[in-house]
Amino acid sequence: MRKLIIPYIKFWSKSKNQHGVQSPFVYDLVTKCFYDKTNYDDYTKLKTYKKHLLSNNNTIEVTDLGVGSQVMKSNTRIIHNIAKNAGTTSHRAKLFYRLTNYFQFKSILELGTSMGIATQAMHLGNPEAKITTIEGCPNISDFTSNTFKQFDLKSIEVLNGDFNEVTKTLTSNNYDLIYFDGNHQKDATLNYFETLLDTAHNDSVFIFDDIYWSKGMAEAWETIKQHPKVTITIDTFFWGIVFFRKEQAKEHFTIRV
User: Fold this and answer.
1) N or C, where is the chain less crowded by C-beta within 10 Å?
2) Pairing state of beta strands 107-111 and 130-135?
3) Distance between CA atoms of 144 and 233, rounded to whole angstroms?
4) Along the chain (257 residues), what's the average pLDDT of each consecutive run of 10 residues?
5) Tally of structural domains, the chain
6) Which structural domain range is residue 16 located in?
7) 152 three-class SS
8) What CATH number should be reported for the domain holding residue 204?
9) Which residues contact 95 (CB under 8 A, 6 or more apart)?
């Protein structure tokens, strides 16, 4: 998208690879996870799942509770178009797989199920993990729940409803990973962050999708970075990754992935 050209140029000018990263924790994450070139067998399953969605020409009536799609204007949408334009890219799905495998997350919360591409990747990264994923559109929620069953993906609970309401019912839980996707608005993003902050422990990871999607999202990302409970952040341009490790001094990284 044209509006992302200038933010990306700025990102690239200050981004790094593993060289120059002084933190051992971040250095290991970058070299052993981000830049892991292993061709995992499960990557074939990621490809098969997405290919299944991309071959589906059925239509579905979509209810947008967030800001909606910038590509698909009609609420009647073809499954393969949703998977192509709104679904997690293959590159990011593989990174989700590696992250879940690297940290061995046991309890995962996802805000924004969509077609379940990211959900499947996290499940494959650690099949023992309990994943709770929230989808605002009832038709997408039903479709993706059935797709999970079709692919025999277990330990995944799909909740349908407004993020504001559903997240309030989850605040007594603890999560190793929370992925924030589905409502790319500043106030909503900050509200979800504050609501779910108490579910984080010292080794939890929060991932925010599309942090440069709009001026408001970029502002939300800057606010999150400055929160006193946040210690390490990693800006990958498409994701903002947050850590709460008390043993680490506050530091912000900009990493090319």
Assistant:
1) N
2) parallel
3) 31
4) 74 77 94 97 98 97 66 78 91 98 98 97 98 97 98 97 96 98 91 97 97 94 98 96 97 94
5) 1
6) 2-254
7) coil
8) 3.40.50.150
9) 34, 257
